[in-house]
Structure formats: structure tokens, C-alpha cells
Design brief:
Layout (H helix, E strand, L loop, with lengths): L4 H8 L3 H10 L5 E2 L5 E2 L2 H7 L5 H4 L8 H51 L7 H6 L2
Antiparallel strand pairs: 1-2
């Protein structure tokens, strides 16, 4: 019994692309059927890629198990809480940056206004030459 490309991927836990690359590079040999599909001998395939244990190879029925769903929900809650805290921390940092920028802007504005309204008394030579 030979494997098709899809069956070989399932038997090794690799992607079809990985198996196809191994075939193209010559790491694994296979023949082609009349329809153009690969026929890969199990011994040849498992020489390069070890077989996956049966419980991992079958459809993952453990995901239907209530305990795993509870564990997943708990993990997701923890991740969500972490992301919310991270988002809040980033929001506070942005608020602090905005506040600092506004303060800097106000200081620059005051300095520019002060320079424009420079009312220092002009000396004789400045009055004479208009500077």
C-alpha cells in the first residue's frame, strides 16, 4: 500500500509542501500514477520522516473533551487579561507623551511670543541705523 501526497503528510505530521519538496529534491523517492499523483512507499517515506503516533495522526477528538475546552478558555482569559493590561499601559504611556508634548509646545509658544514682543530699550546707534 503506497501513500498519496496527502496521506504521506498526515502519516508524518508534515505539510504537503514539505513532502513535495523532499520528493523534488530526491530525499524521498516516489513513482507517479497514471493520473499524475505520487505513489510513495511507506518505508521510503519513513526513512526520512518518522511516523507520527496514532493519537496525533487521527482527528483530534480531544478538542471535543470538556476539560480541554475549559483549559483553553482559562488560557484565553489569561491571555486576554494580559493584553488588556498591556493595552492600558501603552495608553498611559501615550497620554504621558501627549502631555509632555503639549507642555513643550506651550513653552515654545511663550518663548516665541516673548521674542516677538521684545520691548528692550534701543540704544543710540540702533535708533540711528534702524536696527
Amino acid at each position: 500500500m503506497s501513500y498519496s501526497l496527502n496521506d504521506a503528510a498526515k502519516a508524518t505530521g508534515k505539510s504537503k509542501t514539505t513532502i513535495h519538496r523532499a520528493l523534488k529534491s530526491g530525499k524521498v523517492s516516489a513513482s507517479k500514477t497514471d493520473s499524475g499523483a505520487y505513489a510513495i512507499e511507506p518505508a521510503e517515506l519513513h526513512r526520512v520522516f518518522p511516523p507520527v503516533p496514532m493519537e496525533r495522526n487521527t482527528e483530534r477528538s480531544e478538542w471535543n473533551d470538556v476539560e480541554h475546552q475549559r483549559d483553553d478558555q482559562g488560557t484565553l482569559r489569561i491571555q486576554l487579561e494580559f493584553l488588556e493590561k498591556e493595552r492600558e499601559r501603552e495608553r498611559q504611556q501615550l497620554q504621558e507623551t501627549i502631555t509632555d508634548l503639549r507642555e513643550d509646545r506651550d513653552r515654545w509658544r511663550q518663548q516665541a511670543t516673548a521674542l516677538l514682543e521684545d520691548k528692550r530699550p534701543r540704544g543710540f546707534w540702533q535708533k540711528l541705523f534702524g536696527k
